[in-house]
Amino acid sequence: MAIKYKWLASILREQIQKNLKNGTAKLPTENELCRRYHVSRQTVRQALSLLQQEKLIEKKHGSGTYLTGLMRDAALNTIGILLPNIHEHIYPGILTDLHEILSANGFSEQIFETQNQIALEREILISLLGKPLRGIIVEACQSAFPNPNLDLYKQLHKKGIAILFLYNYYPGLENCLYIKGNDYAGSAMLTKQLINLGHQSIGCIFKSDDIQGHHCYQGYIETIRDSGLPLLRAPICWYGAEELEALQTSQNTSFLRRIVKEKLSQCTAVICFNDEIAYWLTRELLFAGYSLPEDMCIAAFDYIRLNRQGTPPSLILTQKPHEMGIKTAQIMIDKLKGLPVHSLEIPWFLT
Fold first, then answer.
1. What's residue 304's pLDDT?
2. Which of 133, 117, 54, 57 is nearest to 83 (CA)?
3. Domain spanning 2-67: which CATH class is it, in words?
4. How confident is the model at residue 72 (pLDDT cuts 50, 70, 90)?
5. Where along the chain do its domains lie?
6. Does the domain made of 183-318 have the CATH classification 3.90.930.12?
7. What is the rounded CA–CA span in Å between residue 298 and residue 293?
8. What is the 3 state secondary structure string of the chain?
9. Are both 74-176+323-350 and 183-318 of the same fold?
10. CB 128 within 8 Å of CB 155
């Protein structure tokens, strides 16, 4: 009997590996296993108990036996996380949330910094092709532009590595799985609220090389159009990776100073891409002699993350605390278990 249940367990381990690759989340029922392998119910239960001890399966009362998504070798249960800069203020919180959920489910993580550079992203992806990772969570580099690394993402996918994009995605990568904020709806919400407050000349400052910035712009400009306000009175300001790097490394705000002088002089309100831009724009407006919020109403996404002293924006969009990190981890785990998953856009709320 001991030999028989171990024999069955070895067969089921192979079945589990196949299921992990083809997205099948459950094992057959005990009765089906008895019929298929011509063994007793006791043998099946002993085999399943062994697999449960190895954390390969979990039983749900009245529902069946499900895969945990884990491999037998714990060293193989690693999730790669690719982010531009882990020291930027938005990342420690979400990394903590990811770690708590992933580790509680038996997964470890390995973090890589792309510095938002496609060349470095390519080096990392090439190295990952030779690593036994189960999945990768990625914030895309300069996602608004065509990316030369899609071939590597396709190779990783063919190897059975689960890929989940965080905050953005590559439009050129067909059917990619992502989780991000609903930036179009959030930007439209801010614009509509400013219009309702009586503002008729509303500027914006969005990121040019990130698909999030384009979604924000679309929500903004379509709301301006639908309100009947002249599009000519909607100054559109863009910044890219070079300006952001100068801002973060040396507090160089020259691009914001130029925006204040050349673009916003006729505006009574401005929408900022994120809390970082809102903070530094506020400083530049004050240096230029503006009274806030009397002379300029500032609206921003998720200002509370920056947690710096100063004049806060008049309008702020936020998301539920920890929601992005928790749902990112859960989508990845469900994907590895073979459960159905889909892309998700987290809603913004006006505060």
1. 56
2. 117
3. mainly alpha
4. confident
5. 2-67, 74-176+323-350, 183-318
6. no
7. 7
8. CHHHHHHHHHHHHHHHHHHHHHCCCECCCHHHHHHHHCCCHHHHHHHHHHHHHCCCEEEECCCEEEECCCCCCHHHCEEEEEECCCCCCCHHHHHHHHHHHHHHCCCEEEEEECCCCHHHHHHHHHHHCCCCCCEEEECCCCCCCCCCCHHHHHHHHHCCCEEEEECCCCCCCCCCCEEEECHHHHHHHHHHHHHHCCCCCEEEEEECCCHHHHHHHHHHHHHHHHHCCCHHHCCEEEECHHHHHHHHHHCCCHHHHHHHHHCCCCCCEEEECCHHHHHHHHHHHHHCCCCCCCCCEEEEECHHHCCCCCCCCCEEEECCCCHHHHHHHHHHHHHHHCCCCCCEEECCEEC
9. yes
10. no
Interatomic CA distance for residues 116 and 122, integer angstroms: 11
Q: How confident is residue 203, by pLDDT bands cut at 50, 70 and 90?
A: very high
User: Best-predicted range by mean pLDDT among 13-17, 70-74, 86-90, 268-272?
Assistant: 268-272
Residue 86 corresponds to which tokens in the numbers above?
Answer: 């882990």
> Whose structure tokens read 């503006």?
290
Percent of the chain's residues with pLDDT above 90: 84
Does 295 have pLDDT greater than 90?
yes
Task: Say whether pLDDT at 44 is over 90.
Answer: yes
74-176+323-350 maps to CATH 3.40.50.2300: yes
Specify whether the CB–CB gap between 351 and 318 falls below 8 A: yes
Per DSSP, what are the bridge partners of residue 238?
Answer: 206
Per-residue pLDDT at 114: 97
- More confident: 205 or 245: 205
More confident position, 90 or 334: 334
Give the mean model confidence (pLDDT) for residues 86-98.
91
Render pLDDT for 275-284 as a digit per residue (tens, 0 to 9).
899 999 999 9
Residue 263, CA atoms < 13 Å, CB-side half-sphere: 19
* pTM for this predicted structure: 0.92
The two structure tokens encoding residue 3: 């030999």
Q: Which amino acid is at 271?
A: I
